């Protein structure tokens, strides 16, 4: 379901500007071919970055909402305007997807900087109003590019259906486990039949990946008496530029782009492991497969609360050629 708000009146537009810290507005026209061309890009960004009361994406039909278009001097659709606190901070004219992405990147960076409670905003995660939670700092010279994950094409294998969905891994809110959130909605994932997990992450753009940050917050034994306590991951294999997810046997046998072992010392006080990657091997990547081979302990399940990708973005990629296991050529 689309997260983009279709503006139907000036009063509604005013309410949105007052109710969200950041607003990105697409002023479009149905008769404009450039508007039609860039609309899917805007929708993908809306799906990836929308946050209740923090970041809102809206569409304004310039023919139907002439007063709004005139108020912001929009004469040539598509025009994209970014508002902060109800004020214009940037305007992008035309169907230039790269310029739009660059502008929206600033939105993403704004989200990362937002403190809890700023502008009355709250996070989109379960039970936390800290939208600026981070398990570890950013390496100097690099940015958080987690928003480049194409969520609708992600695939997670061997996941416990009673835990959270794959989207929970990329929530910007503080994990409920750090907020005393026992009994809250499960905003983490756990493996199901054994300790292994296979996660396929396609990206919206070509990426240079510098660092992977993994947060894992299994409960203490005495906190979860009625259930088996999951483990943190220990051995992890990464594979780049795969067109689809791997099978478990295939992932076991293939040589990884990088493989690493995590120990207790790798996890900080907030349950996050900061993993530097062999940067030369993670240039110009379009997808990542993360394979949790085993957990650190004697249990039968592993747990992941958050994933964060640090690096640089590059050229936007076409998303139409992604495959799933079992797809036949030409389908």
Automatic annotation (TrEMBL):
Domain of life (superkingdom): Eukaryota
Residue stretches making up the Thioredoxin domain: 3-109
Keyword set includes Disulfide bond: yes
Cited InterPro entries: Galactose-bd-like_sf, PITH_dom, PITH_dom_sf, Thioredoxin-like_sf, Thioredoxin_domain
GO cellular component, one term: cytoplasm
Pfam families, alphabetized: PITH, Thioredoxin
PANTHER family given in the database record: THIOREDOXIN-LIKE PROTEIN 1
Name of the protein: PITH domain-containing protein
UniProt organism field: Parachaetomium inaequale
Lineage: Eukaryota, Fungi, Dikarya, Ascomycota, Pezizomycotina
């Amino acid at each position: 379901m689309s997260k983009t708000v279709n503006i139907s009146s000036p009063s509604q537009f005013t309410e949105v500007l007052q109710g969200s810290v950041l607003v990105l507005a697409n002023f479009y026209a149905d008769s404009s071919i450039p508007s039609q061309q860039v609309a899917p890009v805007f929708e993908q960004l809306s799906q990836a970055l929308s946050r209740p009361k923090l970041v809102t994406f809206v569409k304004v039909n310039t023919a139907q909402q002439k007063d709004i278009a005139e108020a912001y001097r929009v004469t040539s659709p598509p025009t994209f305007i970014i508002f902060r606190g109800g004020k214009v901070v940037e305007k992008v004219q035309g169907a230039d997807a790269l310029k739009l992405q660059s502008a929206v990147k600033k939105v993403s960076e704004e989200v990362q900087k937002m403190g809890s409670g700023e502008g009355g905003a709250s996070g989109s995660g379960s039970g936390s109003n800290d939208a600026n939670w981070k398990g570890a700092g950013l390496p100097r010279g690099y940015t958080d590019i987690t928003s480049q994950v194409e969520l609708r094409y992600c695939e997670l294998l061997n996941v416990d259906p009673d835990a959270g969905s794959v989207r929970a891994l990329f929530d910007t809110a503080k994990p409920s486990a750090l907020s005393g959130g026992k009994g809250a909605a499960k905003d983490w994932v756990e493996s199901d039949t054994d300790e292994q997990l296979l996660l396929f992450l396609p990206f919206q753009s070509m990426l240079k990946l510098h660092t992977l940050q993994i947060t894992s917050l299994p409960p203490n034994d005495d906190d979860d008496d009625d259930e088996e306590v999951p483990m943190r991951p220990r051995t992890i294999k990464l594979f780049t530029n795969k067109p689809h997810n791997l099978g478990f046997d295939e992932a076991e046998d293939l040589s990884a782009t990088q493989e690493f072992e995590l120990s207790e010392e790798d996890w900080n006080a907030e349950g996050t492991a900061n993993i530097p990657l062999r940067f030369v091997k993670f240039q110009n990547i379009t997808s990542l497969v993360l394979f949790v081979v085993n957990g650190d302990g004697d249990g039968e399940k592993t747990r992941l609360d958050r994933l964060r990708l640090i690096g640089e973005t590059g050229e936007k990629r076409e998303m139409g050629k992604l495959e799933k296991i079992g797809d036949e050529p030409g389908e």
